[in-house]
Prior knowledge:
Blueprint: H1 3-24, H2 35-60, H3 64-94, H4 99-107, H5 111-117, H6 122-132, H7 134-161, H8 164-194, E1 207-210, E2 216-222, E3 230-234, H9 244-253, E4 258-262, H10 280-293, E5 299-304, H11 306-319, E6 330-334, H12 346-356, H13 358-366, H14 384-388, E7 396-401, H15 410-421, E8 426-431, H16 437-440, H17 443-458
Parallel strand pairs: 3-4, 3-5, 5-6, 6-7, 7-8
Antiparallel strand pairs: 1-2, 2-4
Helix pairs in contact: 1-2, 1-8, 2-3, 2-5, 2-8, 3-4, 3-5, 5-6, 6-8, 7-8, 9-17, 10-11, 12-13
Amino acid sequence: MRPVASARLVVPAVLVNAAVQATLVINDPTAELSPGFLIGALVSGLAALAMFAVAVASSLAADGPAAVGLLRRRGARFAAWTIGLAVVALIGVTLPTGALGFLVVAAGVFVPIAAMGSPDNPLRAGLRAIGRRIGGYLARIAVTAVTAFLLYLLAILVAFFIGGWIGSLITVTVVGLVTWWLTRLWVHAFVQAQAPLGQQLTMPREHTLRASDGVAISAVHVEGDRHDLCFVVVHGFTGNWHEDRVQKVIVGLRAFGDVIAIDMRGHGRSGGRTTVGYLEVNDVAAAVEWARELGYPAVVTVGFSLGGAVVLREAGLAQAGILHAGRVDAVVSVSAPAFWYYRGTRVMRLVHHLVETRTGRLAMRLSGTRISPREWTDPLPMPPVEAAAKLGTVPLLVVHGDVDRYFPVEHPRAIRDAAAASGVPTEMWVVEGFGHAESAISPQDIDRIGAWARECLLTGAG
């Protein structure tokens, strides 16, 4: 669930829905049931349904095209189940008990998400999700109820102080944005509950590491099936180790060794602000040193996208003696850029706009990623392609997708060529049909990475 991809789809849908609601129905709720009013109500309902569908699909999908694909394949199914749930809830509200309608909504909260994201019967999948994660379900019900009450108060205040179509527009816009946020909360719970019971990751206690420059780094240590090797997993831009896409990697790799995962600075529960690849080497070095303190004889860093660039830089700087901690035994770089300031794809032009402008940084902060406003100074930090050439005898695996929309295959090829020309033991996989980073990587390719690390470092070691 990437906030950038979701925002690009959802925010326009929220604004269009708000405009429709403000101009068609909200201004005159006491109007007679004329044909014009009924047509307006129908259009209004369809606009709200479409906005909700976009919010659900973008929260489930890895990026914009994947969300559009979900809408095409399951949009009609989503609409049918959502409308059915709304009708049943409405009937329940009109019955003498009144509360029955709210109980229907509470029990069926996962149904629209399941209709969009699961091939199973949505009702059965929704009830199964509640049963598997009852604590998270109850907590989200409480958060949703409190949020709904606060929105109700907001609507009263806006109507009293502003009123008219402008007040309606403000209210519906805020409601739409909050609905998107709540949708992401519920989708996260649903995705977690859909994992096979044996693969649901119960995270141990969170640890706080200290980078060499004093920044607090959130980390977790997960024991796997074998304890002679530790993977240090480093997420991509806007990610954190609590996310489903990162936990998928942790679950896969723990079949091949123990795992440490971190939130880089400015992400998740870590302190500081992200420098988008510059000072994050200190965060990875702190995790590697922690693995050494825990007694692991072999440590492999596995980074995705921005994290892939960071693990290359961290290992190269450590091998060159520029970084005085954090030497690793192997490096796996997945979907990483080779060069700084790459703007050759539309997605990366958007990312640069978000990073380099005040409004972009504010938007990213609202979605959970805190970006430093300080620009890099000359000389620029060592780029990943140059760091790869400084790995010496440290084995390097470069993994990339042939349909990566962020960085084309010229990036992994440049990294491989630079490393191989300097005598670094290097292997490159260009995976057919693989998109970008943790969101798109398959369990099979995670298994291949784990097997490569063990074969590379521990063959014949028992």
